[in-house]
Amino acid sequence: MNPKIYLKGVGMTKFDYSQKHWWQLAFEAAMDALKDSKITMADIGAIVFSGMSSAAGGEHQTHKVSLLSGLFKTNVPIIETPSVCGGGGAAFWTALRLLRDEEIKNVLVLSGEKLVDNRADVTTDWILSAAERVIEQTEGLLFPAQNALVYQQYCQKYGGSHEDLELIAFKNHQNAEKNPKAYYYQRPVTMEKIKDSPVVAEPLRLMDCSLSVNGGAAAIVSKDKTDIEIIGSGFATDYLLTFERKDMTHFAATQIAAKKAFAMADLSPDDIDVAEIHDAFTSVELLSYEDLGFAAPGKGGELIRSGKINLDGKMPINPSGGLKAKGHPISATGLAQIYEIANQLRGNCGERQVKKADIGMAHNIGGAGGSVTVHIFKKL
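The chain above was modelled as a monomer; its predicted structure follows.
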C-alpha cells in the first residue's frame, strides 16, 4: 500500500437495544476513536460514513453527509458508502484510498445504526431491500432462506451437518460472554439451547442467525506511524442473485478480496493469528473458513471440530462473539470487527485476549456474498 497507512484509533458503543438515534451512536463511537488516537476533529481531513438510517420516527435522512458536517462542526469532505451489512468494511476500504491525496493526513471512518425498536414493517422492508426484491423474494428467498439454500447446496456437494454449525454458535457465544461491548456479555448460552432453538429455514435454526442490535463503531486511519499498520486490503463484488453465480456453495467475492489482501500483505492464511469473520449465519462463517483459505473446500467442518479456532486455539476466529453473539447492527459491523482486531493486537481484550496476536484479519460481507472486504493488520 502506497503510502504506508496506519490505524490510529478505534471506537465502539455497546451493542444493545439503545433508544439513541443513529447519529448519536455514530458520534459516540467517533469520540471514542478520537480519544484513542489522541487527536481532535481539527486533525481530520475527510470522513467516510456508512449507514442505513431508519424511516421510522422521522429519522429517515438522505443527506447524511450534511447532517454529519453540522454534528462534527467541520467542512471537510464527507463521503457515504452504503453497502448494507458490508458498509463498514467498504467505508474503511474507501478511507484507505483517500489517504493517497497529499492534502489528507487522517480520515475518520464511522457508522451508526438504529436497527431495532422501530416499526416492524419499516425495519423488515429496510432489511429486505439489501437483497433482490422481484425474483428471489417473491419466491420466499428472504435472507435466512437464501442462506439456508446455499448451505443445502454445500451439504449436497461436500457433505455437512448441523452439528458443525452448532459448534460455531457455541464458540461465538462463549466468546461474547467475555466481551463487555457484546449484547450477550455475561449471558451464558448452553449447547442444549442452541440445539433446541426453533427452525427458521432448514437447516438453519434461530441460534444460527445473527442478532439484530443498535450500535456504532469508528476508526481513524492515518499516514502517521502508529502501533498498527494496515498491510492488506481487498474489495470485491458479486451478482445479487445467488443462483446466477457459477458456484452457489462459496462466495467468490470473499475469495477474490482475500486473494488481493494476502497479495498486498505478502502473507498466506497460515500467517493470520486472529480473525473476525462475518457470521451473519453460522453457515456463512463455515463457508468463509474455506473462502478465506483457512480450510480446503468441503473441509470447513473439520476446522471447527479441531478446536484450532477456539479462543485457546492456534488461530481464534471471532473472539468478540461475532455477529452471532456480539450483535449485528448492519453497517457498523465491519468497523466493529476492526475495533476488535485493533484491541487484540494491542493486548487489551482481557479474558478473551488471544495469545501472541501479531497479525489480524477483518472480513466483512454485504448481503449474501454480494460485496466483501478483507483487511489485514500488523502489530508493530
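The radius of gyration is 19 Å.
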